[in-house]
Design goal:
Elements: H1 3-15, H2 18-26, H3 30-38, H4 47-59, E1 63-68, H5 76-95, E2 101-104, H6 115-131, E3 135-138, H7 146-159, E4 163-168, H8 174-181, E5 188-191, H9 207-222, E6 227-229, H10 234-242, E7 251-256, H11 261-269, E8 274-280, H12 285-294, H13 298-307
Parallel strand pairs: 1-2, 1-8, 2-3, 3-4, 4-5, 5-6, 6-7, 7-8
Bound molecules: flavin-adenine dinucleotide.
Length: 318
Amino acid sequence: MTAEVQAAHALRSIARKESMKSYVQQSSELYPLLLRAAKRFISGESREEGIAAAQELNAKGYGVSLEYIGENVAEKEECHKAKDELLLLIEELGSLSMKQVVSFDLSHIGLLIHREAAYAHAVELAERAKKYGMTLMISMEESAKTDDILWVYKKIVEKYSHVGITIQAHLHRSVNDMKELLCLPGKIRIVKGAFQEPTDTALPRSEELNTRYLMLVEQAIKANHPISIATHDEELMKEMKRRQYVSHPHVEVEMLYGVRPDLLRDVKNEGHDCRVYITYGTDWYLYLCHRIAEYPENIYRALVDMTQPSAAEGSTFY
Ligand code: FAD
C-alpha cells in the first residue's frame, strides 16, 4: 500500500471520529484555520453565501445543487432545525425563481432516530420543492445505512417523482439496486462512493470500479432514465464522451464545488449540461476530510489555503 493510499485511509477514519470533529469545532485556533482550507470546497457557512455562489455559477451557465452540510444527527431537535433550514433554502431559491436542485443526507434530518422520522421530514421537503418545481436529491451514506435510505427513497418517490437518489458504484449491491431504481421515476446520481468500506462490501478505486461505473451509466442510458454523472475522473469522462453518454439528452455532468473546475468548464464549453454541487454550513469537517482523502495532494493545497486564504475562493475557478 502506498503512503498516499495509507494517508487516504487514515483521513477517512479520522473523519469518522466524532470526538475529533467536536474538538475541531470547539477549538478557537483550529476551527478558523481549517475553515480557510475548507473554503476551497464549501461556499461559506451561511445560506446567503450558498445562494450567492449558486447565482454566480448560474450566471456562468452551470446548474447547481445546494446542500446544507450535515449528517449523523442523533438529537430530534437538531434534525428539526436541519429540516427547517432546508425548507428555508427551498423557499429562498423558489422566491428567486432558481429552479435548482437541493441535496441532503437523510441522517441529517432524522435517519438515526428512525427511518419513519427521516421519511416524514423528507415529505415536508418534497411538498415544498414541488411548489417551486424543484428537484430534491438524497445523498448516499455508509453501507450500514443503505437499506434504510433506499426504504425512504422508494416510499417517497411513489408520490414525489421530483425526488432522486444517489447510488455508489463501489458497493457490490449497487448492481442489483440499480435494476430496481431504474423502475422508479426519480433521477439517479451515480458516484463512485466516498466512504471506507470492507472489500466484501465494496470495490476500492480500481479499473474494476471504473468498469462497473460505466456499466451502471450504460444501463441508465439504455433505459432513457435521467441521471447525473457525478465524477471528476478525467479518463472516465473521456470514455463516456467517446461512448456518447455525456451528450445523451437525459444526462448531466455534476462535480463538487472546487474540485476539477477546469474539467467541468471544458465539458460545459463543449455544450453539455453541467451542474456544480455547492455546500454551505458550519458542519464542514467530515466534508473537508473526504475531499482530502479522495485526493491526498489536496493536503498541500490545504496548507497553502491556510496561510493564503485568498487562494481558496472556490467559485473563482469556474
Ligand atoms: P476518483 O477515482 O476518486 O478520482 C479520480 C480523479 O478525480 C483523481 O485522480 C483526481 O484527479 C480527481 N479528484 C477526485 N477527487 C478530488 C478532489 N477531492 N480534489 C481534487 N481532485 C479530485 N459520495 C457518496 O458516498 N455519497 C454521495 O451522496 C455523494 N454525492 C456526490 C455528489 C456529487 C455531485 C459528486 C461529484 C460526488 C459525490 N460523492 C458522494 C463523492 C463520490 O463518491 C467520490 O468520493 C468523489 O466524487 C471522488 O470520486 P471520483 O469519481 O471523482 O473519482
